[in-house]
Structures are given as C-alpha cells and as structure tokens.
Amino acid sequence: MAQDENKGGRGFAGMDPDKQREIASKGGKAAHESGNANEFDSESGREAGRKGGQASGGNHREEM
User: Where is this region: Disordered (predicted)?
Assistant: First the structure.
C-alpha cells in the first residue's frame, strides 16, 4: 500500500515528510532573513512558555 493512501493525499499533512521538511525549512530561512523570526535564548524561552501556560489557564496537570 502506498504511503499517501493512508493520509488522504491532501494538503501539507498529506505530503511526503521530506517534502514537508523542505518547505518548512524554506519558511524558517525566509523568516530569519526578513527579521520576523523569534530567537529565544534559554531564559526568554522559559519566560515565554510560562506566560503561554498562564494565558491558557495553566490547568493541564492534575495535582495528586
């Protein structure tokens, strides 16, 4: 059975994984060249993740 038959063959998700990587790589490179890409160091990445968790309610883990 062909790999595309399982995925429906539509859109980005239906593409070959290597083709997805190629397209995503081009997008990332273009974002960096235009200055629109985020560049986090470890500390600012943690801070952004913390703020995102607070914005979403932060109740994803049940305390036992």
Answer: 1-64
